Amino acid sequence: MGTKGRLLRLINIIITIQTKPGINAGELAEAMDISKRQIYRDISDLSSLVPVYSDGNGYYYSGQFALYPTGLDEEEMVAFFALPGVLGETFQLLSFEFHQAYNKIKAALVKEKDLNSAMVEEFSRKFILPKSITHHKNNKNFSKLMKAMLNMFTVKAIYNSRSSGANNRMIDPYYMIFRENRLYLIALCHLRKAVRIFRLSRFIKIELTDKKFEMGDFSIESYLKDSWSIERGKSRVTFLVHFSPNIAPYIQEEEFYSEPKIWLQGDGSLLFQATASSPDEFLRWLFQYGPEAELLEPKKYREELRKLLGKWHETYDP
Fold first, then answer.
1. Distance set, CA 16 to CA 58, 61, 120 (Å)
2. pLDDT tens per residue across span 211-241
């Protein structure tokens, strides 16, 4: 690697430690795509320029040292200017402070790179996503939840549960997840003393508290491991489906939150095996393919589906 490449890597190491205090040599090596031995050499070189130190577990800076990133390259600018379009209506729900910061950086980039501001606005509008993932009445709730998640504050909320109606809850917001054109909050519910899934549009009111929380060893990957989309059931069910040749190419192209097993058949059809903790959620997904999808196993759900189709037949052909 040339001198310029190494200089850029050293700058990236400085910024990464600044962004993630406590990051260790192994994590830095993975982020920079170099060996741990090279990280040790780079840190040794940097120590004569910046106040970097190790506590034996990770790297930190002493004092108030901070390095501001250099100008964005072309790919980074494209990603930055695309942000409003990529986020869709979610971008509009972000806090006033976020919009202020975004507009300041955008204005500086337009001037620095001598860009046409009208062209920048037009570029961001080229990304068209599904409309209305949240309701406008939830603007303040969304902003407060984002602030609570960033600072790890417990929030006091009024939540309209489908089963028990509106009630007061204290919750620790962990993650915001986009699924099926909706936003969901993964949070620890103090009332239920368990991590639960909340639909953002069902929050009536949210207030920040000054109580801090910690997530401990909670893992979002483990929590949603067997979810077909967002719902969590009590037990894992493995489904086997036969998709016709007409629909098989589309199934092969589809992106799934969990990894199914797929076997292409000689006639162009597919055998499709997937495990889900919520059978109802999986079956709702399967219904969209109508007669192009045949549920083979489990026999229990095949029989339930047969009865449901009988009821549909009675509805449309009494």
1. 12, 11, 29
2. 999 988 888 888 888 888 888 887 889 999 9
pTM over 0.85: no
Distance CA 275, CA 14 (A): 43
The CA distance from 72 to 317, in Å, is 63
| Domains in the chain, CATH or no CATH each | 3-61 (1.10.10.10), 74-124 (no CATH), 136-223 (2.30.30), 237-316 (3.30.70)
Find the mean pLDDT for residues 63-91.
70
Q: Are strands 203-212 and 261-264 parallel, antiparallel or unpaired?
A: unpaired
DSSP 72: P
Cβ-count burial 22-38 (b if 16+ within 10 Å, e if not): ebebebbbeebebeeeb
Give the separation between CA 211 and CA 153, rounded to whole angstroms: 6
Rama region for 260: left / alpha / beta (φ>0; ψ in -120 to 50; rest): beta
Q: Left, alpha or beta for 180 (phi > 0: left; psi -120 to 50: alpha)?
A: left
